[in-house]
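Hi team,

Below is the intake form for Inorganic pyrophosphatase from Moraxella caprae. Please confirm the fields before the structure is written into the shared record.

FORM ID: S-0412
PROTEIN: Inorganic pyrophosphatase
ORGANISM: Moraxella caprae
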Amino acid sequence: MVDFNKILDAGDVDAGEINVVVEIPTGSNHKIEWNRKLACFELDRVEPTTFAKPCNYGFIPQTLDEDGDELDALILTEQPLTTGIFLKAKVIGVMKFVDDGEVDDKVIVVPADDRNNGNAYNSLDDLPPQLLKQLEFHFNHYKDLKKAGTTKVEGFFDIATAKEVIKESQKRWVEEA
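The structure came back. Fields below:
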């Protein structure tokens, strides 16, 4: 298995084009996570189908969020992406998120080259408001059947804030290495 964190870096954060590795495809209720110690993907748990992921879910290589895991990314595409692939992604914002008292932010991205929609998504303002409501609802409630009230979306923020979150996570990565 390839160790993404040794081969890929976060990409060009200043330009807003980053590398993202897919862990969970849209529609899956399998909580698949990258295990950096073993350099492979593992099935952490099976979630209730009611809480299948509303979008692709992955991480940004060579980053660490405040929760000790790689910085998460919500990858918006019309079709599910396959676990284990990586893509060049355009940063369009960040969802500030707290999980069980720990900061666990989610950078929101789209493919850097999406010819299907003509690269129509360049910021959160370009997204359908209903999509943001669905993301907020999912992440506020996906643990309700086991640990109700332990997750909270604190809001959606712009590209500049997302880049700051990524850069802070890159610094943490370097400090931990």
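SUMMARY LINE: The CA atoms of residues 20 and 60 lie 5 Å apart.

Thanks, M.
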